[in-house]
Structure prediction request, 339 residues.
Amino acid sequence: MSKPVIFRLGAFSRQWAPRLPLMLFTTLLVTLLLALFSLSCGEVWIPPWRVAMLLVSQSDTPEGFIVNQLRLPRMVLALLVGGGLSLAGLLLQNMVRNPLASPDLMGISAGASAAAVLWLALYGATYLPFAAMAGGAMAVLLVFILAWRQGLTPLRLVLTGVGVSALAGALTTLVLVFSPLTTTLSAWVWLSGSVYGAGWEKVRLLMGVYVLAFPLLVWCARHVVTLQLTDGTATSLGARVQVNRILLLLVCAMLAGAAIATGGAMAFVGLVAPHIARLQVRNGFVGQAWVATLTGGTIVMLADVAARVLFQPVDLPAGIFVAAFGAPFFLWLLLRQRA
Prediction:
């Protein structure tokens, strides 16, 4: 196996694996080819070469409308939702030193879901993404307050996140029980996770949040490795453990909250994709982050293709197929941890 190359410039240093560029290029190429395939699939099959021509020409033909106005924003949103959840899951797993951590475990998904269902019941679908983001942020704030005991520890974060998730899940069930049938059906689709009917306004909203989170993510990325150590060891190396942990928790809340707000509660994406990335890139957070982001986006995109193709003319929520793949993988992880 090739040895990593280390670049140094004064106090700045980076480790670079020689095979990483090829891995990233291969993953990106596979994602783009599958994206082209997803734009071809639907009630109307359009050959991939024709799809490529329509994307370039921006044609006003019926096929051009199907590709550019109906399928393209849906595909882009699926990639962004899956990528954001996967990156948040990778950050959480490193931060709490638990390979089974994910936005679902830390209360972000449950908080966003509870707020979304409550907003649907009271005000309808107007401004629903903003309500879901607010719910995810409130859940993270509650976890932070309850887990703080002169600092944050990985164990307290996980246990508090489980408790907040249970509390938010109970609130969601209570609201659904007392809601009209129409609200319950809309909430069920959202809770399952779906990019059905996605438009460019959702894509712009999600991209806006990601752009805001990106500088903070870049700033914190170099500290992720130190958080994998014990708190005492990381502190002895000069790392500001509590500050870094709080900032990373904020980044996770922004990424996962915005993704869930626009695509619904996609279960298992934030758990599965980081592990697939680690199988491809053994060391190095940056490489793992890129592979996890592309992998998670591809998983949601393919799940959406299956949702709209396998049971035509019914268009099922993509989250059903994400869970169908993620649940067996989760059980395999549990058995592997037990072994």
